[in-house]
Amino acid sequence: MNYNDAMKRIEGIVTALEAGGTGLDETLKMFEEGAKLLKECQQELEQAEKRIDGIRLEDSADGSEN
After folding, report:
1. What is the SS3 assignment for the chain?
2. Is the pTM of this model over 0.90?
């Protein structure tokens, strides 16, 4: 699942949990799914941040050679 789809699913889970009306077992399953998706999204954001930092380092190294 890509980042955008995971975030949409997390939003759906939050909406369902806030609405209530689900049993304890289903609530726990949704919470666990949301926590897993959130962790995956955080990891993807960390990877993107590292790529951006790498690009910045390359740019600054290129700029210092001029």
Report:
1. CCHHHHHHHHHHHHHHHHHCCCCHHHHHHHHHHHHHHHHHHHHHHHHHHHHHHHHHHHHHHHHHCC
2. no
